[in-house]
Each structure stands twice: as C-alpha cells, then as structure tokens.
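P.,

For your records, the input lines for the assembly:
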Amino acid sequence: MSVEQLIPIFASTVAAATPLAYAAFGELVTERSGVLNLGVEGMMLVGAVAGFAVAFHTGSLGLGFAAGMFSGVALALIFAVLTLSLQTNQVATGLALTLFGVGLSAFAGRDYVGVTLGGLQPLTIPLLSDIPFFGPLLFHFDILVYGSIVALFALQWFFGRSRWGLVLRAVGESPASAHAIGYSVIGIRYMAVLFGGAMSGLAGAYLSLAITPLWVEGMTAGRGWIALALVVFGTWKPMRVLLGAYLFGGVTILQFYGQGMGIHIASQLLSMLPYLVTIFVLVLISRNPKTILLNQPMSLGQSYYPHS
Amino acid sequence: MNIQLSHPRLELRGITKIYPSVVANEKVDLIVYPGEIHAVLGENGAGKSTLMKIIYGVTRPDAGEMLWENREVHIESPAEARRMGIGMVFQHFSLFETLTVAENISLALDTPMASSELAQRISAVSEEYGLPIDPHRLVHSMSVGERQRVEIVRCLLNRPRLLIMDEPTSVLTPQAVLKLFETLRRLAAEGCSILYISHKLDEIQALCDSATVLRSGCVTGTTSPKQETRESLARMMIGKDLPHCQMDTRTPGEVRLKINQLSLATVDPFGTHLQNIDLEVRSGEIVGIAGISGNGQKELLAALSGEQPAQQSDTTHISGTAAGKLNPAQRRKLGLRFVPEERLGRGAVPSLSLGLNALITGSDSSMVKRGLIDHSSVRVFAQAVIKRFNVKCGGDKALASSLSGGNLQKFIVGREIMFAPKMMIVAQPTWGVDIGAAQLIRQALIELRNQGVAVLVVSEELEELFMICDRIAVIADGRLSPVVAAVETSVAQIGLWMSGEFTQDNSELAHA
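Structure tokens returned:
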C-alpha cells in the first residue's frame, strides 16, 4: 500500500468522525449542566430528514443544515419542557424521545427515499490545498470538518476560561448550591439542552447532506448512542471525546477496507470492531476514578426542584 | 458605645412562612443594628434557617415586611441581597468541590473580575482577616474548616453590611472557633452587622450582644445573652429546664471489640485513608471518637459495621472472633449493633412502616419464622420500641419518613437496644435531634453501658462526648489518637488533637 492510498482512508475517517463529534459535543454540554438526554439518536434522525428535505426543496445546503439544527432544537425543546419544567424522569423521557424521533423521521422521510442530492463539497483553500500530499490530506475537507475543530477549541475555552462555562459546570455539579448563590438552574439547563439539540440536528444533517447525500430510514445506525458513550468514556472532556470520535471513524473505515481486501472474517464481526475498540480504548484511558469524579457532573440525570 | 442610637440596619416585622406540612415562621420580629452581633437561637427545626433564607432572598415569606436601613424591601434573589450588602455563610456549604477557590468565589461575584486580580484580592482579604487560603486549590482537597474560610472570604469580597452565619462552628475545632470569633468581632467593630445562628448557648454568651430566641417558628424572647444564665436561655429555647445525664463510675469488663492495626485505602478521591488504627472497647464502657467530619469517620464506621470489610480478618475482633472480613449481617450475629449517621436511607427505609423498619436489622430474630414474616410479632416489637423510648408517631404503621429527626433517631437507637447487643456502635447519636430527645438517647446509651454493653460513639459534638464517655479518642486525617480517660483530659487537649497534633509515640505509650 502506497502512502497516497492513506489519503482517502484518512479523509473517510474524518468524514465518519465529524457527525459523531458534533453530536457528542452537544451532549457533552447538556450533560455538564446535569441533564442526561438519551434522545441523541432521535434528534439526529429528525435533523437528517429535515435537513435533506429542506435542501431538496430549496436547493440550498445551507438552509438544509439550518433546518437540521432547528429540528434538533425543536425536539430538544420537547425534552426540556418535560424534564426541566415538568420534572419527568430524564432517562425515560430521553428514550421516548429517541423512539419518537425514529418514527417521526421515517414518516416524514417516506417521499425522499431513493432521491439523491449533490452533497456538501470540500473547500479548496488557495495555496494550502495545492501542497503535495499534505494539501489533499489536511486541506481538502468540507467546511463542517473545520467547524468541528473550531468547536473543540471553542468548548475548551468555554469550560476552561469563560464565566458562563463556569456557571454551567457549577449547575451540573450542585444545582442546589448554584440556586443558593442566585443562578437560574432551570434557565441554564434549558440553554444547555437546546444547544445539545442543535448539535445533534446538525450531526444528523451532516449524515444526509455530506457523507451520503440521500435519505434512508434509520440512517444514523446507532451513531447517536455511540456519541452518548463517547461523552461518558471520554470523561466529559472535549479533547478526549473528539479523539474517541476519530478512533471510531478510523476503525469503521479500516474494517471496510479490510472487507474490501477480502480478509476472511465474517463481515458482521468486523462491523462490531469500531464499537468494541472505541469503548475499550476509552475505558482504558479514563480508568482513573479521580478523573471521572472530578469531571463527571455530580447531578447528572437528577431532576432539580428549585424551592422558593 | 450605645449602638441602639443609630437606625436599625435590618428590621423584620411579622415575617410568616408556611410550608405544606409545617409553619416554619410565625409573625417573627427581629431588629439588628449596625456593628451588632445578634444571635438567633433555637433548636433544630425552630425555623432559624428558614428565616435566614428569607433575609438572603432564597425563600420568599408569605406575610410580613422587611426594612433595610429604614426602607421597605422585597428581596427577590440572593444576587439582589448581595447587591444590598447582605452576605451569608451556609451551614451546608454552597461550594462546588471540583472547582478551585477562585472559581468558586468568582461565581458569587456580581461584577466579573479578571482571574489574576481576583486571586490577589482573595489573598489580600484572607490575610487581612486572618483566614489563610490559597486561591488556586481545588475545594475537594480542603478540610471543612478551610472550606468555611472560603465561604467567609467569598462574602467579605462583596463588602457586606450584614453577614449571616448559619451554625458556623459545627465544623470547627474549639481553637478554630476562638479564631473565628476574633474575625467576627473585628468585622463588627468595622460596622458590619452579624446574624449568628446557633443552638450552642456558651458560644452565644461569649460572642453575641443580643439574641432573638425562636421556638417552633415563634419568637419566645429577645434578650442580652451576657446577662442571662445558660439555664434561663435554655428555658427560652426549649420551654423547660435543661435535662441532665446521670452517670456513675464503673469498672469495665472484658474486651468486646478490638481493632488491631486497621488500615484501609479508600477509592473515593474525596475520602480519607485509614492508617494503622488500634482501638479496644470493653464491656461496660462508652468510648467516644471525636473529630471534625471528613477525617475518616465515615470510613472507620463502614469498616466497623462491615459495609467495607478489611483485607485481613485479624484486624477486627468481635468478642474474640476474628471478624475483619465479615459482612454486616454476620457481625450482627456476633452481637454487634450499628446505628448509622444517615437516618433515612441507611438507618431506616423512608417509605416503609416503623414495623417493617424494625424487621430490617431483625431478620434473624423471632419476627421471621421459617422464612416468613410474622406480622403480629413485628407489631408487638415495634410497639414496644415506641412505648419504651417515647417515640412520637402514628403507631407502628407510620412511615419512617413521617417522623421528625429526633423521633426517628429514638426509634432506630431503641430498635437496636431491644435486640440486646453485646456491642453498640452509634454515629452522631444526637445530630439534628432536639435537646429533650437527645438527653433521652444519651441516657439510654448510658444504661446500655451500665448493663455491660460495649458502646462506641462517634460524634462531632465534644460537649456530648464529655457528657457520656468513659474514654475518648480523636480521629484526624485517618489516624486515631491515643485513647484517654475523659476525666483526665480536657476540651482544649482534645481540640488540639482534632487538628492532627498528636504524635505516634504518644499512641504507643498509651498502649504500653
């Protein structure tokens, strides 16, 4: 295998990892505020079908991505009203949200099955894209791939440096204390949940508009659940979460190539690999109970009733 | 100086707060002057904390008015209270463990400040008032006393004109209490008013200029505590005379519980490792373990009860049997009975009746026959506990969650006593219990000792330990001090040990 053959492998790895990164970043923010939203898969599916439909009818990918995000926010809003204002159980509500999203997206997407679109194209950056080897390797991606790297640094700045990031972490750790010193726990959690919805919707739209520009029922294929696992096994740290996403993307692509080269292992077993490898590696690097306790939002999954 | 000449800084008129099940405050009046240290005295559940939360804007009153510097105000939120110049140090700290000191403080500032400037101001204020803290440390690695300093410094940065301290000394050594008082007196001399909430009479007499006494949500008196006696203050607080414990000297019998070089590493990063603990409790004596919470009490109790068994079985002997690896049920069979600190959740199941709660630690008694519950004997047993220990409740079918803290504690302690233990371990026997019930529980423990039971009490209340213990030790940072006879030591010495100042040589001497 020549070095040039690595370029498409790397490119597909990054493409496979990007939607996971977006969804996981969104869920990370949600969970840091103390809310566990298991509806990521559902929000991604609805984002995928809404994005595809709008892009198909308007011919604008930009509007498609906006619609994906908006529909993710709409689903997250349902979740937020139920769990934050009406204090329903977060786990049950999240599961129901996924089931709802699966059904809604299948229903709304009936007419789009088998339709194709021109998908999101890579950016060509003057000069940089022309560098031999490194040009195609690093500077031949679509805008959302670069966006996910920007999102990583933005999150690190948000949690590490900004006041509102600090407030969000405080709310996730001890909502009662945050309330006592005068922050609106419910208001902040609403923001975090809606942000998570927007990111999941965007991740879904990336699947149906960039990776494979078409709509297939259930096309997320469990990526929402992997995003959830990435957040936990990445110990709520944006960098680790992104690394986990790339690992998952990488193993997914490698096993495809493996199947293509005729390795004699059942393809079903190979398809399991990315899930196993990702979870195994992330569990290994975050075994330290201290890291987990220092980063895990202590109030995760618990409803909070502000007393007045 | 006659502080009464100036206008009141804060005046409450007829403040009433009603919760669905209880009237927390009823027509409460209270006046605080500038530069005054004003005590709010009352038992647990008298409505002190609710009143303070109303002043700090956490809770809104149902009726009554509040005047701040002669203007009527409605405080909608803690942020508003802070803007007006009110600061509060909470009893259960409102700190975030995974954040640094500076981050914690910055969260409570209303005008954001650059982190380097903030760190400088924290150091400046903490030095000025003798409250040394490092702004860059993570809060979870700090002792409770240090955390309290963070809370106080956080308030002082906002330059308060009224500082509310909610039971501030329950986490401090006697020496640290004196230092805290110095800081508070200094603040008062600078014109800051202080509302000092406590149920400890001697502290209030030592520190406060005036006092408002609450009982069951109502004001029962406003007085100058330095001109009152302990007895007269107690009468205002509990409505009757202060009860006393009766205890005579006894010669202890054989060793019932022996801990031998017990070391336990904890997996909880916020926990404490136990190091080489040696302890003997004999039949017919009460041994007390003092210490500030978070110094290994939780871990030691888990090791003794069997919830966290040791690696070697010879580290713990119960009545001569090596029991280090036994679980709680096996230890119960050897006659060890345990009353945990958390009443609801560990000591009792909130949603079960008192009768079924009696069964929880009595499943190997006559209440279970051939694997089936004998409901009539459960009822008889629960009713006997209720009667003997004067538990105020709706009978044996009342849910554990419906009882007040004191009554539930009487039931739990009573339950274990009725199983005729050989050894009894009690954690925080009277925490959050009103004075009357506390005396009853203490007297019950003394009677148990008189019957020849070996009793081990872990408590943060030094006064209580000196009241009921034959011998006292201190746990500090996971190590146990020498065990000394209560009559041969003093609050001052135990207080010194609580900050960890006992040497290993001493403990060897004590065992020799």
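Two observations worth noting. Chain A has one domain: 3-295. Residues 168 and 292 of chain A are 18 Å apart (CA to CA).

Regards
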